Structure formats: structure tokens, C-alpha cells
């Protein structure tokens, strides 16, 4: 789905890529992610739940949290932290820039092909 690259970022598509959807699965540099609308901002997250790998594209976004469809853990879309009572790692998030020329994913450390 990604259709352009610039140093440190990858263009995902037009600024209105999500349309009226709250969740959209995308493939970026071979990595399965989801775009999530969290209020006025958009964030990218890994698509597989860090618990047992459920497809988070089948989840829901409620009040700034992404709910996993399998066991109902939820993730804070500001930092990826999991809801109380769970002990697995946080959801990996990636910053999205909404610009006039489209949506761009910022590729920092930890993204495939980037320095660790
Ligand atoms: S697979 Fe997501 S909470 Fe268990």
C-alpha cells in the first residue's frame, strides 16, 4: 500500500486514506500494520496483538484505546501500554504525519530497515 519514500518516512497514500473508517490495515515495507483514528489524530500500530497474535484490524477503537477482539485487552494509543491486569508487552506504535500531500509514516528506530 505504501507508495513513496523519503528519508525517515514513507508515504502511505492520500490524506483521506481512512475515509470514514476508524481502522485500516496496511502493509508498509513488508510489515503488517493498522492505521487507527484516535480522535483528531491518526496513529499506526502493529497489526498482531502482542498477547496471542489476534488480528487487531478486527478490533475497535474506543476513547483513545484499541480493543483486541480476542481477549478484550486494550491498548492506549498514546504509548501502546496494555490495560491493567495483563502482563505482556506494549503494542508497538508508529507516528503518522498528516500533510497536504498525504499520510506519512515516520520510520524511526525499530522499524524494518532502520537502525536499531
Ligand atoms: S490475543 Fe489480544 S488480548 Fe489476547
UniProtKB/TrEMBL annotation:
Matching entries from InterPro entries are given as:
Rieske_2Fe-2S, Rieske_2Fe-2S_sf
Q: Which residues form the Rieske domain?
A: 9-105
* Keywords, alphabetical: 2Fe-2S, Iron, Iron-sulfur, Metal-binding
Pfam families reported in the protein's UniProt record: Rieske (PF00355)
Keyword field contains NAD: no
Q: Which residues cross the membrane?
A: none
Keyword Nuclease applies: no
Q: Which domain of life is it from?
A: Bacteria
List the protein's name.
Answer: Rieske (2Fe-2S) protein
